[in-house]
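TA notes, week 10

Several of you asked for a full example with nothing omitted. So below is the full record: structure tokens for the whole chain, then the designed sequence directly under it. When grading your own attempts, check the secondary structure regions first.
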């Protein structure tokens, strides 16, 4: 067996996982409310991080398309789900964002909620 083949087999036998970005999940010197929110969010964030990278965007796009396609409360619930996920991720990344990044995330979440309100009345 060649050296390359043996190296590939060793790589296949190791579990595949993505390393965590950065040094920590927690904001240094955070307020007690922020620290509590980060502790509650750590497990779901780690779960999302260990999924294949394409899963979260595909689920978000499916919910967005379903929310725009379905009329009434069903579409509104799908869009509120997208807004809730985006809002949660924005709140977790808030300390590291610039003012423009914060404003952009607020606009996107507000737009999703506006679309959900519009869809609920259709």
């Amino acid at each position: 067996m060649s050296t390359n083949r043996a190296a590939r087999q060793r790589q296949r036998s190791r579990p595949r996982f993505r390393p965590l970005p950065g040094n920590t999940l927690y904001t240094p010197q955070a307020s007690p409310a922020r620290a509590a929110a980060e502790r509650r969010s750590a497990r779901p964030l780690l779960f999302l991080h260990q999924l294949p990278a394409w899963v979260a965007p595909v689920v978000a796009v499916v919910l967005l398309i379903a929310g725009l396609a379905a009329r009434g409360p069903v579409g509104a619930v799908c869009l509120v789900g997208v807004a809730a996920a985006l809002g949660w991720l924005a709140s977790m990344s808030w300390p590291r964002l610039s003012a423009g990044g914060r404003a952009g995330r607020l606009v996107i979440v507000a737009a999703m909620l506006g679309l959900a309100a519009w869809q609920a009345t259709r």
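The chain has a mean pLDDT of 84. Use that as a sanity check on your answer.
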